[in-house]
Amino acid sequence: MSDATAAISQPARRAELEANLAEFEARVHAACLVAGRDPREINLIAVTKTFPAEDVRLLAQLGIADVGENRDQEAAAKHRQCVDLPVRWHFIGGLQRNKCRSVARYADVVQSVDRLELVAALSAAAVAADRSLLALVQVSLHAEPSAPAGRSGVVPADALRLADAVAAAPRLSIGGVMAVAPLGADPDRAFARLVGVAAVVRGAHPAATMVSTGMSADFESAIRHGATHLRVGTALLGRRSALVR
C-alpha cells in the first residue's frame, strides 16, 4: 500500500470502524435493557485475527482496550508492531504446549486453557518470561461428552479441577471461564449450561468473575446468560473475505 493510498484509506477505515462500533454498542445496550443488566458490565474484546496492525491502532484510538488473537505467529508479529498501545492482549485460540513460551511473552490473558498439561507449560513459560498471566478455563458446551474436532474445552464437571490447578500454578491466576456455543446448536441452551460452571468456579475462586462467551452472531444471547466479555470480530471489523489489504 502506497503512502498516498494509506492517507486516503485510513480515515475511511476509521470511519467504518467507528460506525460499526456505534452500532454494536447500541445492540449491546438494547440486549442489556431486555436482560435487566448494566451495559457497563459488558466488555468488548475486538478479535483482530487476519486484520492488519493498522486496524488495532485505529481501534485503540476509538477507545478499544482489549484485543483478541488466535494464532501465535500472527499475534506475536502484530504485538511487536503495536507494543506502544495501551491495549490488553488476549490469546483466544487453541494453544499447544510448544507455543506457550511465545504466547507468554505478549499475552496478558490466555482464554483457552483446556487441559492440565497446558497449565504446567504455560506457568513455566510465564516464569521464564518474568510475566504474570490471567488464564481462563475453556469449557466445552456440547451436550455430548466429547466435542467434535476443532472445538476444544474441558467438560463442565472437570472445570473446577482445572481452575484449581491454574490458581496454584506460579505466575498464573484464574480469571474465570471461556466458551464457544456449539455450531448449529441453540446458543441459549449452551450458554445456560455455562452459568452453572461459572458459578462453581467463582464459588471457589471469588476473583474469577470473567465469563467470556458470545461472538458476533450470538452475543445478545450471551448477554442474557451473564457474559461479561464478548469476543467480536465480524460485527466490528467486517467480513474477512471481503477485505483486501
Write the layout of secondary structure elements.
Elements: H1 3-35, E1 43-47, H2 53-61, E2 66-69, H3 72-81, E3 88-91, H4 100-106, E4 109-113, H5 116-129, E5 133-139, H6 159-168, E6 172-179, H7 187-204, E7 210-212, H8 219-224, E8 229-232, H9 234-237
Parallel strand pairs: 1-2, 1-8, 2-3, 3-4, 4-5, 5-6, 6-7
Keywords:
eight-stranded parallel sheet, 16% strand, 8 strands, single chain, alpha/beta, 9 helices
Poorly predicted runs are: 1-8
Rg to the nearest angstrom?
18 Å
Strand-residue proportion:
15-25%
Count the strands?
8
Instruction: State the end-to-end distance.
Output: 8 Å
General shape: globular
Order of helices and strands: HEHEHEHEHEHEHEHEH
The average pLDDT score comes to: 92
Secondary structure class reads alpha/beta
Write out the strand line-up for the largest beta sheet, numbering strands in chain order.
Answer: 7-6-5-4-3-2-1-8
Question: Would you kindly provide a written description of the structure presented here, covering whatever features stand out?
Answer:
There is one protein chain. The chain is α/β, with parallel strands linked by helices and 245 residues long. It has nine helices and eight strands. It has an eight-stranded parallel beta sheet with strand order 7-6-5-4-3-2-1-8. Strand 1, helix 2 and strand 2 form a beta-alpha-beta unit. Helix 3 packs parallel to helix 4, helix 4 crosses helix 5 and helix 6 crosses helix 7. The chain is globular and about 45 Å long.
